[in-house]
Design goal:
314 residues; Rhopdopsin 7-helix transmembrane proteins; mainly alpha; globular; single chain; three-stranded mixed β-sheet
Length: 314
């Protein structure tokens, strides 16, 4: 038999205020986020297509980038449509089930992206520090295994964190000063003991962030030492350029994640949290394909060929 608390929780809804505190900005924000979403979809789907049709890009680095683009597309699609809806309708409510689903899929994508960025750093480490062993070390079987690990850890983390929310009870309709169903939304709305849920968040957020960061930092330390030992200036430039895009993406992504989630007892103002959430949930998925494509001539050349074919066909 279902407990009264659970029956009560199932009837509760959340009201995501989003940016309703700024009514004069609703239309400009809608147009801005719609544009960002369009660029995100075109950029990430375009990157997947480009990697698929250009044989020059059938390398481990672009195999991982292909999956990174897929993850970026997924979690922007999980978040932005609901954000756009809340900017144009008065009823900003969302059921607990809907909120849990958004959170669960979002966590899967975000943590998968963390691991994928660490995998890409390891790929650059092998390519620059051990170029003669690169083909053997980053074989198709090894690349598939690393991608499987990334998705698996994302799913496992999502299951554990989602379970830690499902054990909470919610006693009344809760107004949430955010636009997305993040972990803090559930904790602030709960009327039961949150200790277990807070511990799970702290463990998995920090474990995922810092373990992957250790891999990234260690990889780049070896990369920089190897590059500095190179005698050729052109060789150093080429090595730095192959890492620049990934290093930029890592800095932006982890900087935001650590600021929002990995600082214990942080008391960030709600507007700061909203802007930070917008940055890593909305802006970063748009920036990643731009960061990786603008610095790669093969990607830009393939994009141009696709556009030329479309113009000729018209």
């Amino acid at each position: 038999m279902v407990s009264p608390d659970k029956n009560q929780s199932s009837a509760v809804v959340f009201i995501l205020l989003g940016f309703s505190d700024y009514p004069e900005l609703q239309v400009p924000l809608f147009l801005l986020f719609l544009t960002i979403y369009a660029v995100t979809v075109v950029g990430n789907v375009g990157m997947i297509v480009v990697i698929k049709i250009n044989p020059k890009l059938h390398t481990p680095m672009y195999f991982f980038l292909n999956h990174l683009s897929f993850v970026d597309f997924c979690y922007s699609t999980i978040v932005i449509p609901k954000l756009l809806e809340n900017l144009v309708v008065e009823d900003r409510s969302i059921s607990i089930k809907g909120c849990v689903m958004q959170f669960s899929f979002g966590v899967t994508c975000v943590i998968t992206e963390m691991v994928m960025l660490a995998v890409m750093a390891y790929d650059r480490f092998v390519a620059i520090c051990y170029p003669l062993l690169y083909t053997v070390s980053m074989s198709p079987k090894c690349c598939a295994l690393l991608v499987t690990v990334a998705y698996s850890w994302g799913i496992i983390s999502s299951i554990v964190l989602t379970y830690s929310l499902l054990v909470l009870s919610f006693c009344e309709t809760k107004i949430i000063n955010n636009f997305v169903c993040e972990y803090s939304v559930f904790l602030s709305a709960s009327c039961s003991d949150k200790h277990f849920s807070e511990i799970m968040l702290f463990i998995f957020a920090n474990l995922s962030a810092f373990c992957t960061l250790i891999i990234i930092i260690t990889s780049y330390l070896f990369i920089f030492v190897t590059i500095l030992k190179m005698r050729s200036a052109s060789g150093r430039y080429k090595a730095f350029s192959t890492c620049a895009s990934h290093f930029t993406a890592v800095t932006i992504f982890y900087g935001t994640i650590i600021f929002l989630y990995c600082i214990p007892n942080s008391k960030n103002p709600s507007l700061v949290v909203k802007v930070g959430s917008v940055f890593y949930l909305v802006v970063i998925p748009m920036l990643n394909p731009l960061i990786y494509s603008l610095r790669n001539n093969d990607v830009k050349e393939t994009f141009r060929k696709i556009l030329d074919l479309k113009i000729i066909s018209q």
